Amino acid sequence: QLQFVESGGGLVQPGGSLRLSCAASAFTWNYYAIGWFRQAPGKQREGVASIRSSGTITAYADSVKGRFTISRDNAKNTVYLQMNSLKPEDTAVYYCAAKPGYSPSIKVDDYDYWGQGTQVTVSS
């Protein structure tokens, strides 16, 4: 079973940047697409970005296109989310998750394995 350790969250001013990391422990890591999701207080969890198992195909929510970039290093079993031009509305707990199969998806229900989350706060 996959287990994740997320890191990189914190407090940042509007317009700033953060890079989140998601490190997984599973020898079958390469067979999973990985997604980043977020949940703000009082709101439903939503998909942010996802990446194919090979790293060649990505998907993004419209709200983050052009600002966030997802990437993966399969040799390190790690997926990254580079977040630039952050806005207060990006404030949320960010989770990484894995879905069996190769294709990326930003649908919450497609994912079976979830991390514990890391807090991102964008505020002046």
Descriptive report:
The structure is a single chain. The protein has 124 residues and is mostly beta strands. The chain is built from no helices and eleven strands. It has strands at 3-7, 10-12, 18-25, 32-39, 46-51, 58-60, 68-73, 78-83, 92-100, 113-114, 118-122. The strands form two sheets. Strands 2, 4, 5, 6, 9, 10 and 11 form a seven-stranded mixed β-sheet that branches. A four-stranded antiparallel β-sheet has the order 1-3-8-7, with no helix packed on it. β7 and β8 form a beta hairpin. The mean pLDDT is 93.
Short summary:
This protein has 124 residues and is an all-beta fold. The protein has strands spanning 3-7, 10-12, 18-25, 32-39, 46-51, 58-60, 68-73, 78-83, 92-100, 113-114, 118-122.
Classify the beta-strand content into a percent band: over 45%
Biggest β-sheet: count, sense, barrel? 7 strands, mixed
Using the alpha-carbon principal axes, give the shape: globular
- Unreliable stretches (pLDDT < 50, length at least 5) are none
Order of secondary-structure elements: EEEEEEEEEEE
Count of DSSP-assigned helices: 0
Number of strands: 11
What are the defining features of this structure?
0% helix, four-stranded antiparallel beta sheet, mainly beta, seven-stranded mixed beta sheet, 124 residues
Helices, strands, pairings?
Blueprint lengths: L2 E5 L2 E3 L5 E8 L6 E8 L6 E6 L6 E3 L7 E6 L4 E6 L8 E9 L12 E2 L3 E5 L2
Parallel strand pairs: 2-11
Antiparallel strand pairs: 1-3, 3-8, 4-5, 4-9, 5-6, 7-8, 9-10, 9-11
